[in-house]
Amino acid sequence: MNEPTAEGRKLSRSFGWLALLGTLLVIAGIIGLIYTGVATLTSMLLFGWLLLVGGLVGLLHAIESRGTSYFWLGVVVAALNIAAGVVVIKHPEGTAEALTMFAALLFLTGGVFRLVGSVVVRGPQMGWTLLQGAFGLLLGLLVLFDWPHSSLYVLGCFFSLALLFDGLGLIAIGIGGRRIVSMVSERLDETVPTADEPITAAEDEQK
After folding, report:
1. Res. 192: pLDDT tops 60
2. Which residues are CB-contacts of 182 (< 8 A; sequence separation ≥ 6)?
3. Four-residue CA torsion sign, 8, 10, 11, 16
4. What is the pLDDT of residues 89-137, one digit of tens each?
């Protein structure tokens, strides 16, 4: 009786921490949507540090595997990651401009391919595909026409929206998990007999 209760409390506490983390991410996402410029620079710095740390870890792994056929490939990839991380950290604004241009080109090409593909194929989802293609094309044109000023808010907006939706997902998982744990604990409490029930049955038999 005590073990399920202890495990249930532990699971409920874990889901509570998950919901708390989701709340923090939602708050960070809302702040990022308000201050998109700061969010853009923050995302670039995080991206640069991830590249740098990943390159250092990859270099250590390459050194540990020296003598194998993948040694030089690992060293080259690690060196490229380290160099890219240093460049991104030193020049976050320029990196944001380059990535914004790349994102605009992706939106444009994706929108054009969706529009052309939907017209050529004419499948059952033609209307939805046309809408997606038109939206991607319009978004790419808006970002491209406002470049490089758009680099101050596009990446930060995407980064903040990712934090916001990830946080909402974690909150939903945390709250749902706590409810499931509570329901299972209540069901176990109802099905497991108490200490008084065998005594009562024995007294009934004696009578």
Report:
1. no
2. 8, 12
3. positive
4. 888 888 888 888 888 888 888 888 787 877 777 767 777 777 877 878 8
Pairwise CA distance, residues 37 & 43, whole Å: 10
**75 to 51, 54, 61, 124, 158: CA distances (angstroms):** 14, 12, 9, 49, 32
b/e sequence 15-30, b meaning 16+ C-beta within 10 Å: beebbeebeebbebbe
Contacts of 60 (CB under 8 A, 6+ apart): none
Two tokens, residue 141: 């044109």
Both tokens of residue 105? 């080109």
Q: Which residue has the tokens 């996402």?
A: 29
